[in-house]
Amino acid sequence: MIVIGSVLYVGTKYGSELAHSYTSELARVPMPELPDIVVLARSMQEALRNQRIVGVAVNQPKCLNLPVAKFSRSVSGLGFRHIKQRGKWVLAEMDKDWTLAFNQGMGGEVQLHKPDEVPDPKRERVVFRLDDQSQIWVHHWWYGHVHLVEPGKLGAHPQIGKLGAEPLAEDFTVERLGEMLAGRRGRIKSYLLDQKFIAGIGNVYVQDILWHARLHPLRKTNTLNASDVARLHKGIRHVLGEGIRWGGGPGEQDVWGNKGRYAEHLQVGYRTGKPCPACGTLIEELRVGSTTSYICPKCQIAP
Amino acid sequence: MIVIGSVLYVGTKYGSELAHSYTSELARVPMPELPDIVVLARSMQEALRNQRIVGVAVNQPKCLNLPVAKFSRSVSGLGFRHIKQRGKWVLAEMDKDWTLAFNQGMGGEVQLHKPDEVPDPKRERVVFRLDDQSQIWVHHWWYGHVHLVEPGKLGAHPQIGKLGAEPLAEDFTVERLGEMLAGRRGRIKSYLLDQKFIAGIGNVYVQDILWHARLHPLRKTNTLNASDVARLHKGIRHVLGEGIRWGGGPGEQDVWGNKGRYAEHLQVGYRTGKPCPACGTLIEELRVGSTTSYICPKCQIAP
DNA sequence: GCATCAAACAAAGA
DNA sequence: CTCTTTGTTTGATG
Fold first, then answer.
1. I want to staple B131 with a disulfide (CB 3.0 to 4.6 A). Which of A31, B52, B197, B219 is the partner?
2. Structural domains counted in chain A
């Protein structure tokens, strides 16, 4: 155990030692959030644009929203037009305005593979064959989805249709965040994790967002003043931006298998017992509902 | 305090002494349930059939579902056709297929008054004048409603439209009850009180229903076997029938002010410390969620 | 550990 | 429990 004393630490000085312990424990089950999905969607856009699906193998029918036969028939022949992120979903706009929607649930991979590679049907839930004979292998660690959505039906999708604000969109202003929070009385952490309010934040990035905003996860939403909301807004945009900048979180990969490096830049998340980058106080772990929180007890005062 | 020992008591021997303590404590805030509403609706049918509303005074606009002006304009001139009970609501089918719906919330009165009587506007929420110049005074102790529903819109009413099964209807069979309970995992008392499953049961009659079925209020719904369900079905029909037979519960009145006498026939409800009518064991009180339960600890074994 | 939904449960408000 | 709304907890889901 590292004893820190009262020395003041700043920046990301302790990033590398954190990265090691974090990735060794959690890399097996990466749980993709908005930045990871942005990185994946961008790589898919680069790799799959102008490609066409010529065949599909479904090894886990439960991850579909349609019967296998209908899914296969409908998706075959469709070309990829544009691929983007929405909340924790990758949305691929296909020919004829269909949407192929990927949700990695509690973790998984969407990987491009060469024509001659042979997928393990026990591991790969869905395999798409493209017209240049390359393949997309979709693997889910746990509870992922590959949904094919009819033209114009995205708003009626049981999950996608209920997603809240995109936190990196231009219209997600500090004023709007303030209005959204007004009158609510729950915990700020629960609010940030609720996809119907703000879409894309999960239990990894929320830690650093709250730390940047100097907010304790148990703070009640209706106790936030204008300054709190301003710091929160800045924290959301900054931390999610950093996640994208570093290619996504620990264990996440783009479609070619390039690994994210945000683990090296985590401030408090998953750094129990290590020093706060701002003040050196040892980071503590606490339970908030069913999730774990990581906080600096000095920077994030309990309510 | 009465000490009972091991003597066996049966029937409703102790009804009268219970009736006194019960009515003295609770009569001020009666909370009407299905039997009380049946009795009220029958008396209204008798008293109001073929009468016509010629005027209305609204002293508490919040109990309406429409602005006062629109409510008054729409209801004036309508004649009563048929009046019936649905859950804890009195539904009066009016001319032109409009429905005038009364909900007494946590208690109240719908009373017929002579032409020359003068209502206290502070007490009577709504007063209807009929074409024979007699009056209907609607009083609410707390949170009652007088709603006017357009033809064909009853199913879209935010409360009435969501009501569950009518427990005295012919199609409420033991088989249906079994199907309704299948797969649920909550407490049987919570289930019985939830209006979206079965409509009309409240915290008075539910006590005797569970006692008749020999079920503890904390029993999990999914632990009931066929015999439990059969006793429960019988208990529901029997107890609600008794409530009607005795003219409704304590503090309830029909439209002429005749008082209900079911208080004298309560088996365990609100009889803490008195003997169980079946075995003589002293009745106990316990909290189930936010409500109070009254049980015989010998007849209704804890789960 | 935590994604998401549904049900159950609790508190507050009208 | 009178009923709704909100939020929290728990259980189930490949």
1. B52
2. 2
In this complex, the residue with its CA at the shortest distance from the C1' of nucleotide D7 is A186
Which of B162, B191, B216 is the C-terminal boundary of a domain?
A: B162
Query: What does the buried/exposed string (b/e) look like for B123-137 if buried means 16 or more CB atoms within 10 Å of the residue's CB?
Result: ebbbbbbbeeebbbb
Measured between alpha carbons, how far is B293 from B229 in angstroms, rounded to an integer?
20
Query: Could you give the CA distance from residue B288 to residue B189 in angstroms, rounded to a whole number?
Result: 8
Which of the nucleotides in strand D have any atom less than 7 Å away from a protein CB atom? 1-11, 13-14
Protein residue minimizing CA–C1' distance to D2:
B105
How far is CA B35 from each of CA B237, B248, B253, rounded to the nearest angstrom?
Answer: 11, 6, 11
* Shared domain check, A158 and A228: no
| pLDDT tens for each residue of A171-192 | 999 999 999 998 898 999 999 9
How are strands ordered across the β-sheet holding A89-94? A80-86, A89-94, A99-103, A145-149
The dihedrals phi and psi of B53, each to the nearest 5 degrees, come to: -80, 125
Domain that holds residue B79: 35-162
Is B242 strand, coil or helix? Answer: helix
Please give the nucleotide, over all strands, whose C1' is closest to the CA of residue A294. Answer: C1
What would the pLDDT profile of A25-58 be if each residue is shown by its tens digit?
Answer: 444 456 899 999 999 999 999 999 999 999 999 9
Domain at B65, CATH number: 3.20.190.10
Which residue's C-alpha is at the least distance from the C1' of C4?
A: A105
Q: What pTM did the predictor assign?
A: 0.85
